[in-house]
Amino acid sequence: MTVLVGVDVGTTGVKALAIDEEGRVLAKAEEPYPLSTPQPGWSEQDPEDWWRASERALAALPNADSIGFSGQMHGLVVLDEHERVLRPAILWNDQRTAAECAEIEERVGLERLIALTGNRALPGFTAPKLLWLRKHEPAVYARIAHILLPKDYVRLRLTDVHAIDAADASGTLLFDVAHRRWSEEVCDALDLPLAWLPPAHESTEIAGAGDQAAAALGVGIVEPGALSVVLGTSGVVFAALDGFVADPLARAHVFCHAVPDTWHAMGVMLSAAESMRWLRGVLGGEYGELLADAAAIARGADGVLFAPYLSGERTPHVDADVRAAFQGLSLGHGRGSLVRAVLEGVAYGLRDSLELLRTLGVDAHVGRASGGGARSELWLRIVASVLGLPLELTAVEEGSAYGAALLAGVMAGVWRDAREAVDACVRVRATIEPDAEWQHTYEDGYGRFQALYPALKEIP
Q1: Which helix (H) or strand (E) holds 420?
Q2: Comparing C-alpha atoms, which of 160, 137, 132, 136 is closest to residue 148?
Q3: Which DSSP symbol is given to 304?
Q4: Which of 42, 63, 203, 281 is 20 to 30 A from residue 221's alpha carbon, by CA?
């Protein structure tokens, strides 16, 4: 039996699993590690923690015939000429680089930056972190010889190979996404040496991808027609594209997909299941109790709307400062109305991403749901009705690590390509259809929801 292993280097820990040629999960392991916040808005980790956790996770699994990697995107690992880590990695959720983002857009030009990379400069991306190091830690910057992303550092420790895939490289802001290669133009404009960057390959060649591309592959998104809808801490609507096309305002991310010669557009809302976690912390009770209260409330939450901007918002509003709100509260509203409003508000936020993706030519007929929020049938029914799409659940819900294991199989020759891997392994176990009676209510509700952001933006 061929054993294929996927390793996902996440923000809170490493997840690893082993599968066979039919996609059945043979074993899985998870190893946590800490997150450091040395100053407000900073987010760092020690790359050695990733490696030690990966070693432990791999030791708990059967011996692998092939290993694939996925991981948190955008994180900056800097190494010296002897491949020694120079400082803690600066992560995707670090917010220290606002000034450097403005500098990048000025140096390259915003329109040109979007045309080349599919994105505007955001604090989480890799390139602004390098400019920050150059300005604030020049002694460290002067010793840089190699740059890697988190999962690629683990690959280096395991295989002694410097490499990156086009999907993860797309999130550095240094990659020519249309042509699937490092951008000499951007690197020259920012005075960053191309020699620091690892060789870029297709995901299927080196069995690697950023976490969102790997997770989408794990639920079978290999070509246009189906969406990945993630109800995780953040909410993601992910669609494959036949060609590169960028939103002129870069409100959606456009990256290379893990499938060669395919791209993807992705809308990200920052507080999806996180909104429910926050509300539970405020109200108390178990999730099952809260969801039961919400189920007892009619669609439309008795007129209550929730704007899910607890941490600001990314898609379609690139706005770190906007904040959440309930609108329409009265003395007659109770816990169930609040919970239902949160479930619906998150669904409306996902609809924002879907509508934006449609402007890029996405024509979806079904969604594949995943993430912790997808365990709630009520929430899935609400999301399906708001999006106007059936939502399918797959038999295996192991996310990015599962997609990485599929890539390991392609690299090893178990399957000819990613499509054959998906056909062999990804199976639908349930479908949640939109509720026709709910859809009319939610069309009206979405119109009201769209008025919330402009109103909140006007409040000092």
Answers
A1: helix 418-425
A2: 160
A3: -
A4: 63
CA distance 355 to 360: 9
Q: Note the pLDDT of residue 41.
A: 86
Q: Is residue 207 part of a domain?
A: no
The per-residue pLDDT for 444 is 96
Task: Look up the pTM and report it.
Answer: 0.92
Query: Could you say which of 201, 231, 264 is where a domain stops?
Result: 201
Please list the active-site residues. Answer: 211
Residues 172 and 296 both lie in one domain: no
Shared-domain flag, residues 9 and 155: yes
Contact 452, 316 (CB under 8 A): no
d(CA 92, CA 125): 6
Question: Widest CA span of the chain, in angstroms?
Answer: 66
Token pair listed for 19: 């599968």
Give me 430's structure tokens.
Answer: 């349930």
State which amino acid sits at residue 274: E
How far apart CA 248 and CA 119 sit, in angstroms, is 9
369/309 Cα distance (integer angstroms):
22
Q: 165 and 295: one domain? A: no
| Sheet strands (E) in 211-278 | 226-231, 235-241, 253-256, 263-269
Say whether both 254 and 351 belong to one domain: yes
Q: What's the residue count for the chain?
A: 460
Write the pLDDT tens digit of every residue in 136-168. Answer: 999 999 999 999 999 999 999 999 999 999 999
Structure tokens at 209: 């991808």
| pLDDT tens-digit map of 232-268 | 888 999 999 999 999 999 999 999 999 999 999 999 9
438: its two tokens: 């709910």
**How many domains is the chain partitioned into structurally?**
2
Strand partners, 370: 230
- Whether 129 and 235 map to the same domain: the answer is no
CATH number for the domain spanning 37: value is 3.30.420.40
> Which of 41, 58, 60, 61 lies closest to 50, judged by CA?
58
Q: Are 238 and 369 in contact (CB under 8 A)?
A: no
Mean pLDDT by 10 residues, the chain (460 residues): 96 95 96 93 95 98 97 96 98 92 97 95 94 98 98 98 97 97 98 98 98 95 94 92 92 95 94 94 95 97 96 86 94 96 98 96 94 94 98 91 98 97 96 96 97 92
Share of the chain above pLDDT 70, in %: 100
Q: Are residues 196 and 243 in the same domain?
A: no
The confidence score (pLDDT) of residue 318 equals 82
Q: Which residue's structure tokens are 């990156």?
A: 164
Domain assignment present for residue 206? The answer is no
